[in-house]
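This part of the workshop introduces the protein records we will be handling. To make this concrete, we reproduce a full record directly below.
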Amino acid sequence: MELQERTLAFIKETRGHDLSKYNLAHPFLGTLNAYEWLQFVALHEIRHAKQVREIARNLPKTVTGLEK
């Protein structure tokens, strides 16, 4: 949650700035500007949310062996 809050704060703080001027290298994707980084972070978060839902869907509804 902290990363999401920091990302939202960054978006608010940089409103009106040309983020295409700021670049940072990604180890696999190459150099991305700040707009591209924001898109990457958003898509990455969406993927993680889908993974959590997929895992949760496949978990057993009850846990056996823990009954008293």
User: Anything to note?
Assistant: The mean pLDDT is 90. Strands lie at 23-26, 30-33. The chain has two helices and two strands.
